[in-house]
Design a protein that fits this description.
33 helices, about 30% helix, alpha/beta, single chain, about 20% strand
């Protein structure tokens, strides 16, 4: 099949263009090369014009940005070459920052494709096959040799990949940004492109007017500076200079008989040849042209690719997120062993401590025992044998729907039999369960689902509506509380017999494949997807079993729903209390007693906010309910610091229970554990922060010492009393952050370890003390100040029920600000709030209280507290309703202190959907 560049005679639109060129001052357009006008960001020493033949053999003048001559002039040897290919309607200007950031010895070539930028404008339109061939001829003329990497955007993607498939011997890696090689069959092409491509509009929108050119740069978030916006449009100021813009749009092969369809299919089908070639996909998730479905298609074809996804970036991802350029260079250099952090993050990790593993399958150690009990509705229950059989049938039903090992399946179902069945059915199939709970908040939940890219979403009606509204491109299946849909899936599975959709043998499912994508709470930033392999999940289940003696015969109340999912693997009977699991504070003492009684529970897990409300509502219990709460032997609470005072109150209600506060996070749990009520004053003497106990067997912990600027060291120590970032490793620690290559690499130092983002120290007995989040450390001129030690001292001030410290000002010169909550919500300290000031707006504390707070804080801070503010609640995370959102609190304090008004302060304090609490 011929490309359009081979079609003769000229198409009508090309003849019109040729006539326009002739009319324009009677000669061909301006000669190739940069114009004399100033173009911001371009070093003119990069600019050159190179002659290379086009696909028909005609010599053409190409404009390129090329650092090669500069390297030669400096006598530097070329270590590697990066070939940058733009799309439509941009030009080599897109890569200016890439050239600027080039490390020594790297040659960067950014081409202006024929008809584009400041290259020659042939009269004949260029088809995809011709453009690939022409890029091959250009690089030959430029004498490009290996090692070579390619970087491309938009329709430069398939052109660069076509070039790459013809240079496999020299190719060392490919980087793609918001592009596509195939139109997924289950969706239409981008609406913007389909509209612009209409026969009646394409000439007007793309050539006769600058609409298409201007619209492309208008997509950026935040908007581009005006000079940059104008620079992108500079090569396309006249209609005759925009002819190739229209040609590019016409050349998009949506139709099966399009002249360029065969060339695009050849590129797409050829990507299997790149299975051993490193690849990086840098993606703007808000792109209305090349959205998430195209990212997923590329991942299906390049499953080994690393991904750096920017949720708020649009089509011009490197304009919206310039830090992506640094990520690209870090990735490129790592492929040649040049990364300065290679020893820390890129080397082969030492093996983690060995631990036992528990299969992520329904335990049949006690098949007739009850596995799951539901307290809502009809109070259903299911035995382990029944659950195992149902899991098997539903897994086969999912297989019949096309779910295969490795596929991602989001499960958005309330805790209970349906949720448990689906999660274990996904695991039985060898697929990957995506767990994004409503505790993230609806907006963040939708964003989390989009980022995970599930093939299938199984959920209740509200969840499926959310998936549709937030543009999650996946098949959606309704699951109601009655379980009717699962019955149908199970019926399909049973009906298959042995003839079709057979499940893989469990022994054939490698432990190294992905098993789950979980999401962080987002307390210190957007929620991140955390990927666990099947082996890592198995190790985590085993550590929970061995650390807390949880196994067959134990009965577990899970007031934090994800923990209920491990019950069937451990042989535990489990129940979720009658509560809103997305709002921990809705657990009351009476509902806890009902859950304990339903299964004669021996263990309880609840977030600190849930335990607080249990204690606060204990007065509603009758004698029988109080007797029921004497049964459990263990209470676990995690997610945020838990005060000893609260735990002693819990022990008064559950007198037979020991209380443990396992330390960990979404990326690793458990890391350490302790019953804080058993810590003696002597053991706590001289320590600061929250003691989380000794590391559990199978977990190694080190400290990356903080320097005077609050920056953690690369090396790890275990010296008592030295404060730094807490770094862990173990067989149960996450595999990686999902589609966040830069964040994963930053956290994986040394290789095989995980930087938790928490700060703390060891005491002389090897116990770990947590002093706060690294992101919340206040960097003062006198050095870093960790929050927990200061806050604990401030809480001892009479009349103060809670406190948080934040930093205001530039890093390294921050002022220490204390925010206190009075006892009784609106107490004497907040008297001014009752005179028309909106709740939470805050005031300066009275002098007497401010003096007391400053005096208390001086025991743990090298700098004085600059200001003491009062408000009647502290903002906290949605999931646990326990972690103080110091980021929004810092913005609120800054607004108050700089007099930006009550409205600004309230906006800073109230993140959409965020709850508040009276105490930490």
């Amino acid at each position: 099949m011929r490309s359009r560049s081979e079609d003769l005679p000229l198409p009508l639109h090309a003849r019109h263009r040729a006539a326009a060129m002739t009319r324009r001052s009677g000669h061909v357009p301006d000669s190739p090369g940069l114009p004399v006008v100033d173009i911001p960001g371009i070093d003119r020493s990069w600019s050159r014009v190179v002659v290379a033949s086009d696909a028909e053999g005609t010599p053409r003048s190409w404009h390129v940005l090329d650092t090669g001559p500069l390297l030669a002039a400096r006598g530097e040897q070329v270590r590697a070459t990066l070939l940058c290919v733009h799309g439509n309607p941009t030009w080599s200007y897109l890569w200016r920052r890439v050239l600027e950031a080039a490390p020594p010895g790297w040659r960067v070539i950014a081409v202006d494709q024929l008809g584009m930028g400041f290259s020659e404008r042939p009269v004949q339109p260029r088809g995809l096959a011709a453009r690939i061939e022409e890029l091959v001829r250009l690089t030959s003329a430029l004498e490009v040799s290996g090692p070579i990497f390619s970087l491309a955007h938009d329709w430069g993607g398939p052109i660069s990949l076509g070039w790459a498939l013809r240079h496999l011997d020299d190719l060392r890696g490919v980087v793609l940004t918001n592009t596509a090689v195939h139109q997924p069959e289950d969706s239409a092409g981008p609406a913007v492109i389909r509209l612009a491509r209409l026969p009646g509009l394409v000439d007007w929108v793309c050539q006769q007017t600058p609409t298409f050119v201007r619209a492309t740069t208008a997509l950026s978030v935040p908007p581009l500076p005006r000079p940059v916006h104008q620079a992108f449009a500079q090569p396309y100021l006249a209609p005759d200079r925009r002819a190739a813009v229209a040609d590019f749009v016409r050349d998009i092969p949506f139709e099966t008989d399009h002249p360029s369809r065969a060339a695009l299919d050849a590129v797409a089908d050829g990507l299997g040849s790149l299975s051993q070639v490193p690849a990086l996909l840098v993606w703007g998730a808000r792109d209305p042209v090349f959205g998430e479905r195209y990212l997923q298609d590329l991942l299906d074809r390049l499953p080994h690719a690393d991904v750096q996804r920017y949720p708020s970036a649009s089509h011009l991802v490197l304009e919206d997120r310039p830090e992506g350029i640094g990520v690209i260079w870090q990735w490129l250099r790592s492929q040649l062993g040049e990364d300065p952090h290679a020893d820390a993050a890129g080397s082969d990790p030492a093996p983690a401590p060995e631990v036992a593993r528990v299969p992520i399958a329904v335990s049949l150690s006690s098949p007739s025992h009850t596995a799951v009990v539901e307290l809502v509705g009809d109070g259903r229950s299911v035995t382990f044998a029944q659950l195992s059989a149902r899991v098997h049938d539903v897994a086969r039903g999912l297989a019949a729907r096309g779910v295969r090992p490795g596929d991602r399946v989001a499960v958005l179902v309330p805790p209970g039999i349906e949720l448990t069945t689906l999660v274990y059915a996904v695991w039985r199939l060898g697929a990957v369960v995506v767990v994004a709970d409503a505790g993230l908040g609806l907006g963040r939940l939708g964003a989390a689902l989009r980022s995970a890219g599930p093939k299938l979403v199984l959920g209740i009606s509200k969840a499926l509506t959310l998936a549709a509204v937030t543009r999650v491109h996946a098949e959606r299946v309704l699951v109601t509380e009655s379980g009717t849909e699962l019955d149908a899936l199970a019926l399909v599975g049973r009906g298959l017999g042995g003839s079709a959709a057979l499940l893989p043998e469990e022994s054939d499912l490698p432990g190294s494949i992905d098993g789950a994508v979980l999401f962080t709470s987002g307390a210190t930033g957007p929620p991140k997807g955390v990927v666990y392999t099947r082996d890592q999940l198995s190790a985590q289940v085993a550590l929970l079993r061995d650390t807390f003696s949880l196994g067959p015969g134990e009965r577990f109340v899970a007031a934090f729903a994800p923990f209920a999912l491990y019950g069937p693997a451990l042989g535990l009977t489990s129940v979720v209390p009658d509560m809103d699991v997305t709002a921990p504070h809705t657990l009351t003492a009476r509902r806890l007693a009902q859950a304990v009684e339903a299964i004669d529970a021996t263990a309880v897990f609840a977030a600190p906010a849930a335990l607080r409300n249990v204690v606060d509502t204990a007065g509603d219990l009758d004698a029988h309910e109080r007797g029921v709460l004497e049964g459990p032997r263990l209470v676990l609470s995690a997610g945020a610091p838990v005060s000893v005072h609260l735990l002693r109150s819990v022990q008064a209600l559950l007198p037979s229970a020991t209380t443990h506060t396992p330390y960990g996070m979404t990326e690793a749990l458990p890391i350490a554990t302790l019953d804080p009520t058993a810590l003696s004053p002597t053991q706590a003497s001289g320590q600061s922060g929250v003691c989380v106990g000794h590391p559990v067997p199978g977990a190694e912990v080190g400290i990356a010492l903080l320097d005077g600027r609050g920056i953690p060291a690369e090396d790890l120590i275990t010296t008592p009393g030295m404060v730094g970032e807490i770094v862990v490793r173990g067989a149960h620690v996450k595999d990686r952050y999902d589609r966040q290559w830069a964040q994963q690499r930053a956290s994986d130092r040394p290789a095989g370890w995980h930087r938790t983002g928490d700060v703390g120290h060891f005491d002389g007995e090897g116990r770990l003390w947590v002093e706060g989040r690294l992101a919340h450390v206040v960097t003062t001129p006198e050095g870093p100040v960790t929050p927990y030690p200061v806050e604990d001292l401030i809480r001892t001030v009479p009349g103060v029920s809670d406190a948080a410290i934040v930093g205001v000002g530039p890093a390294g010169t921050q002022q220490l600000i204390a925010v206190v909550v009075p006892e009784g919500r609106l107490g004497p300290l907040a008297c001014r709030m009752s005179t028309g000031t909106p709740r939470g707006a805050g005031v300066l504390a009275p002098p007497r209280i401010a003096r007391a707070v400053r005096q208390a804080a001086s025991g743990a801070s090298p700098v004085p507290v600059a200001a003491v503010l009062v408000r009647d609640w502290l903002p906290v995370d949605i999931r646990h309703a326990s972690k103080v959102d110091r980021g929004s609190l810092s913005g609120w304090a800054d607004a108050v202190l700089h007099g930006r008004g009550v409205a600004a302060a309230v906006r800073a304090a109230l993140r959409p959907g965020a709850p508040h609490t009276k105490s930490r």
